[in-house]
Amino acid sequence: MLKKTLLIALALVCPLTALAATDPITARKEVFKQYKETVGPMGKMVKGDMPYNKDEFAKLATRLDTLAQQPWQHFTPGSDKGKTDAKAEIWSKPAEFKQAVDTHKAEVAKLRQVAATGNLDQIRPQFGAVQKTCKACHDSFRSE
Ligand code: HEC
C-alpha cells in the first residue's frame, strides 16, 4: 500500500520527466523546441530585427552547440511510428542521416567560435550556413 502511494506520488510529481524518459519522440521534439527558442533570437539579431548583443548571441550559440549533441540519440529503432514527422529514411539510410547530423554539428561548432569574436560580418554568413544544415536535413528526413 505504502509502495503504491509512493508510486502515485512520484507519477504526480514528475509526469513530464517520466514521459521524456520513456518516449523518444517526445524527447527529441522537446530538444527541437529548444532549438527553435534558441535560433529565433539569434536570427533576429543577425537580421537586425533585434539589437545585436555580443554576449547574449555568444551565450545562445553555446546553448545551440549543447543542443546539437542531443536529439539524435532519441531516433531509436521503432520510434518511426507514432506522432512523429520523422521519415523512414532516417532508419533506412543511416549513413546519410549521420552525415546530415555531422555536418550540422560542425557548422554549429564553427558558429560558436565565430560568435565569440563578436564580428557580425563573420557571424552572419556562418549563421546562414547553420540554417542551411537544418533545412537540408528537414528536406530529406522530415515530412511536411
Ligand atoms: C540531422 C537532421 C536534422 C537537423 C540538422 C535539424 N533537424 Fe529539426 N527535425 C529533424 C527531424 C527528423 C524532425 C522530426 C522529429 C519528429 O517529429 O519526431 C525535426 C523536427 C524539428 C522541429 C519540430 C519539433 C516538433 O515539436 O515537432 C523543429 C522546430 C526543428 N526540427 C527545428 C530545427 C532547427 C532550428 C534546426 C537547426 C538549428 C534543426 N531542426 C536541425 C531533423 C533535423
UniProtKB/TrEMBL annotation:
<keyword id="KW-0249">Electron transport</keyword>
<protein>
    <submittedName>
        <fullName>Cytochrome c556</fullName>
    </submittedName>
</protein>
<keyword id="KW-0479">Metal-binding</keyword>
<feature type="binding site" description="axial binding residue">
    <location>
        <position position="138"/>
    </location>
    <ligand>
        <name>heme c</name>
    </ligand>
</feature>
<keyword id="KW-0408">Iron</keyword>
<keyword id="KW-0732">Signal</keyword>
<dbReference type="InterPro" id="IPR002321">
    <property type="entry name" value="Cyt_c_II"/>
</dbReference>
<feature type="binding site" description="covalent">
    <location>
        <position position="134"/>
    </location>
    <ligand>
        <name>heme c</name>
    </ligand>
</feature>
<dbReference type="GO" id="GO:0020037">
    <property type="term" value="F:heme binding"/>
</dbReference>
<dbReference type="InterPro" id="IPR012127">
    <property type="entry name" value="Cyt_c_prime"/>
</dbReference>
<dbReference type="GO" id="GO:0009055">
    <property type="term" value="F:electron transfer activity"/>
</dbReference>
<dbReference type="GO" id="GO:0022900">
    <property type="term" value="P:electron transport chain"/>
</dbReference>
<keyword id="KW-0349">Heme</keyword>
<dbReference type="Pfam" id="PF01322">
    <property type="entry name" value="Cytochrom_C_2"/>
</dbReference>
<dbReference type="InterPro" id="IPR010980">
    <property type="entry name" value="Cyt_c/b562"/>
</dbReference>
<feature type="signal peptide">
    <location>
        <begin position="1"/>
        <end position="20"/>
    </location>
</feature>
<dbReference type="GO" id="GO:0042597">
    <property type="term" value="C:periplasmic space"/>
</dbReference>
<dbReference type="GO" id="GO:0005506">
    <property type="term" value="F:iron ion binding"/>
</dbReference>
<keyword id="KW-0813">Transport</keyword>
<feature type="binding site" description="covalent">
    <location>
        <position position="137"/>
    </location>
    <ligand>
        <name>heme c</name>
    </ligand>
</feature>
